[in-house]
Amino acid sequence: MLPGLIVMKWLLLFFDSLRFPVSYGLVMKAEIFATSLLLTCVLSAGNWPAWRGEGSNGATTGEQPPVDLAEKLLWKAELPGRGCSTPIVWGEKLFVTSPVGDEDGLLAFDAKGKELWRKTFGTGTPGRGQRVGSSTNSSPITDGEVVVAYFKSGSVACVDLDGKPLWQINLQEKYGKDMLWWDQGTSPVFAAGHVVVAVMQTEGESYLVSLDRKTGKEVWKTARKYEVGKESGDSYTTPHVLKVNGVEQIISWGADHLTGHDAATGKLLWESGGFNPKRSEFQRVIASAVVGDGLAVVPFNRGDSLAAIRLDGSGDVSETHWAWRNDKLGTDAASPVLHDGKVYVLKDGGPQRGRLTCLDAKTGKQLWESTLPKGPQVYYASPLLVGDQIYCVREDGMVFSGKITKDGLSDIKSHVLEEGVIASPISVGGRLFLRTDSSLFCFGED
Asked: pTM here?
């Protein structure tokens, strides 16, 4: 609302200046300067509207939080239940899904950590009891007018920014049961003005569905089913939405295939196999791809491989559009970061966990490699890049941060949250937000 009022005021002043150029000229110049400054401040505050930010790649160029988080805690807010979803931010409001009793819930907080409202959407489906699962693994999304949340129960719920319910449907009741071996992980996305959810599983129905943003009614639904080995069709990844050759596409990763669909119709435009040509079993995918500069960088082979696929093809591009492949580097659960032509890959588990590698996105050439302090725990949270600072959070609540240089990671700091963390960190306006098993943390300068 505020930017719209500013623009209207600017236009009124402009037309007044045409009628009274002498008396209003200087006033208008002063108003334009003040308005431009205010608008710049409003826009520079930024938002974090989805799981991995505005570009969906885990990076932002906004104001940086402190590298050293010691003595920088601004507030901590208790959550009503354990969830694994990442919060989102729009303006002065933060939104996060959480169990509320035995129900699916969505909560809003203000910039100081005060709870503004909470809404529930019926009985939730509990996580499988694993430390990495919950009934609220998927992160909500917002476009500044509505907030959409998706839950393991199959419910997709839409409210306005004040929490007013707008619509709610249940995908499992409408299209079939959740047959994933583990707890749902994909988050919804906005595409062609609607809400799109990817359901990709080995057993049961596998599809992309577009829901009308205003009503929740189906706009289109397209099957996304491939012949795969046991469990290998189960995907916990979140799609990307971007324009390729002037066409808005939904790029999705799962079932041994990277695919591009027309966002307006759901039509399959291209597909790339080759990730698991022998159809090996248990090749489920957790870490999402990152997309930019005409490429999708895809983690696969359960954290042991990484590849880049060019996005400008049509039809089956399995033999023609692989830009590069690395079978000595990968990540299983923590999605990479892509920014400014570079890919940052955090090795999340195994003997080399905590290894951070920087690659040239177009060539796959390794630029540098650094190692975070060792520990027995793994990384489920995806790393966050804010300008030249990176934040990595281990499952035991250890937060590692440091400065990116041309030679590697420097000035590494660590901070203990003393609570388990599965959700990814986010940053808006110089604040770092972290969701733990039971709380929301906000770090920054006073």
From this structure: 0.89
Nearest to 86 by CA among 232, 356, 288, 358: 288
pLDDT band at 29 (very low <50, low <70, confident <90, very high): very low
Q: How far apart are alpha carbons 53 and 429 in whole angstroms?
A: 13
Mean of per-residue pLDDT scores for the chain: 90
Q: What angle do CA 171, 172, 177 make, to 5 degrees?
A: 150
Statement: residue 41 has pLDDT above 80: no
- Give 322: exposed, middle or buried? Use CB within 10 Å, 0-12, 13-18, 19+: middle
- What is the biggest distance separating any 2 CA atoms in the chain, rounded to whole angstroms? 78
147 touches 157 (CB < 8 A): no
The domain ranges of the chain are 1-45, 46-443
**pLDDT at residue 21 above 70?**
no
The answer to whether 168 and 159 are in contact (CB under 8 A) is: no
Q: Encode pLDDT of 156-198 as tens digits.
A: 999 999 999 999 999 999 999 999 999 999 999 999 999 999 9
Contacts of 406 (CB under 8 A, 6+ apart): 367, 368
Burial (CB < 10 A; 0-12, 13-18, 19+), residue 3, is: exposed
Query: CA 132, CA 137: separation in Å to the nearest integer?
Result: 9
Residue 251 confidence (pLDDT): 98
Q: Is the distance from CB of 238 to CB of 288 less than 8 angstroms?
A: yes
- The three-class DSSP label of residue 445 is coil
* Predicted pLDDT of residue 131: 76
Contact indicator for 183, 127 with CB cutoff of 8 Å: yes
Contact at 8 Å (CB) between 116 and 129?
A: no
CATH topology of domain 46-443: Methylamine Dehydrogenase; Chain H (2.130.10)
Contacts 24+ apart (CB under 8 A), 347-352: 347/303, 348/287, 348/303, 348/378, 348/379, 348/380, 349/303, 349/378, 349/379, 350/303
Q: What is the structure's pLDDT at 46? A: 82
The radius of gyration of the chain's CA atoms, rounded to the nearest angstrom, is: 22
Q: What is the rounded distance in angstroms from the CA atom of residue 348 to the CA atom of residue 333?
A: 7
Predicted confidence (pLDDT) at residue 351 exceeds the cutoff of 90? yes
